[in-house]
Structure formats: C-alpha cells, structure tokens
Design a protein that fits this description.
Blueprint (H helix, E strand, L loop, with lengths): L4 H45 L2 H15 L5 H12 L3 H26 L1
Protein name: EF-hand domain-containing protein
Subcellular location: Nucleus
GO cellular component, one term: nucleus
Length: about 110
Amino acid sequence: MENNPREKALVHVLKQLQGVQHFKDAQEKLQKSIYNRGFFLCRKVREKLGSSDKFIAFLKQLHLYSSGVIDLTEFLNLVDDVLRADQDLMNEFDAFLEHCEKEQMNWSLRSES
C-alpha cells in the first residue's frame, strides 16, 4: 500500500499539516514570551512612575504604536519623555526592545528554512 500514489500524497499532506502545527506552536510560544516580558515591563513602569497620569500616558503611547498610528521612532521619542527620569527603567525598556528584535530575527531565520 506504500506504493499507492494516493497514500503517498496523503502522507505528504499530513506531514505538511504537522509542519504547519509546529509553526503555529512556535509562533504562539514566541508571542507568549514577548507578551509576558511586556506585561512585566508595564508593571515595572506603573510601579516606578507612581503617578497614574504618567502611566496612562505611557499606555496610550504604547497603544498608538501597537495599532500603527505612530512609528517606532515617534513611539521611542514619546516613551523617552515619560521614562527619562528613571535610567533603570529606560535600560529595562531598551532590553525589552532588543529582546523583541532578537526574537523576531530568530523567528524570521526559522521560518525561512
């Protein structure tokens, strides 16, 4: 039955579907990693800023960026205005952005191969 062309085609399709599922699982794992780090960063921003107005301003800027209203450069300029007072927080924010870039590059390399 292995020589049956239909069975070979079915096996090929099933292997492709398994690859798609693996791709989806990896993509979900990547998103979860980034969301978790982003969540903890937002928590630290809230704790460090102390002022609910400053934190709300930060969240609004983050929303504008994530929805595509502003680009990364503009977002970084706005965030810098809010977070500049706390160098540790800026360093953590920079580390978060580097993590996101690294994960996206790794993801691109994996999906190309």
